[in-house]
From TrEMBL, chains A, B:
Residues 7-77 form the Transcription regulator PadR N-terminal domain. This is PadR family transcriptional regulator. Pfam families: PadR, Vir_act_alpha_C. It comes from the Bacteria. The lineage of its organism: Bacteria, Bacillati, Actinomycetota, Actinomycetes, Kitasatosporales. InterPro entries: Tscrpt_reg_PadR_C (IPR018309), Tscrpt_reg_PadR_N (IPR005149), WH-like_DNA-bd_sf (IPR036388), WH_DNA-bd_sf (IPR036390).
Amino acid sequence: MSLRHALLGLLSERPASGYDLLKLFDTSLATVWPATQSQIYTELTKLADAGLITVAAEGPRGRKEYALTEQGMAELRHWLTETAPQRNTRSDILLRVFFLGVLTPGQARAYLTELVEMSAQGEESLRHLAESIDWDDDNLSTYGRIVLEYGLRFNAMRRDWAEWAAGQIT
Amino acid sequence: MSLRHALLGLLSERPASGYDLLKLFDTSLATVWPATQSQIYTELTKLADAGLITVAAEGPRGRKEYALTEQGMAELRHWLTETAPQRNTRSDILLRVFFLGVLTPGQARAYLTELVEMSAQGEESLRHLAESIDWDDDNLSTYGRIVLEYGLRFNAMRRDWAEWAAGQIT
DNA sequence: GAAGTCATGTAACGGGTTACATGATTTG
DNA sequence: CAAATCATGTAACCCGTTACATGACTTC
């Protein structure tokens, strides 16, 4: 049920249309919470029906600009303060590691080396991202930077780990 | 589509029933790829229909022990060597960080401190897990240890990051 | 013989992905 | 006026979760 909260969160900054939100997802939330166009539009309709957002303005081409209602803001705060985040996330990448034993040691090492590569690239592209963004002083920027720092540290950790793991295979 | 590969992977070690697999999931794969009982049983039926596994033996109470077929092993190897793992995983925890700006600085700091706590506990319980397991010399153990090391490093990284992030909030 | 464990299966529902479908407005 | 972009909506399908349902065997 987090998509709805992601939408509420983005709308808490400023009103936006489905189209705007789709782009915000692709640019800022993509790595943390990807969402598709169809998903966003259907969820926006549900949120409006539930009274958590409203159509604040209409524009050309049927554009509907949504804004957060008081109720929506309350729900967002409730989610942030009263509900526990869940720790378990599925990881395709780690699942494979469990079963590397069915491969030859060389192949297993190759997989881990690929992960080193992937993590290094991830770090690299986050650095580029950090430079390309013109960080405003708004909330999304402040906390966006903190999330980005997480990404940097995460990739560095994974790179080191994969390097170590590759060395473990004899 | 990774549940099927998780099942194939576990069956590559030794034959097992749905019931056995359910427990293996709960004990060894829970943090990386959780699965429910209903999911496991339905997927096993599909895998058997597809010829990737077969009922190798039947036991009391309708117990069906499944074993990997050659085809199943081929599919497992194919998955491990030829298909790219996908990097993006959704994170409830990080999504919240983006929107901490709607809370007071104190509340935001409280959330991050909670994450410090959660990560420290995660690390702790992984240490206990490591001690409680009697590590065999089989493949699952070798690579299981590597995955566990990942968990330790991950939690340590997240703890440090959350501590740092809490300090960023003025 | 009661309680616990072993053992399997199915149905309803919710969220996410892919694909289809349409059309208005702006820009070169 | 053609191409690009803006803009929304819906349908089919897959995967995962929760809940329901049933019964055989073992242990105390």
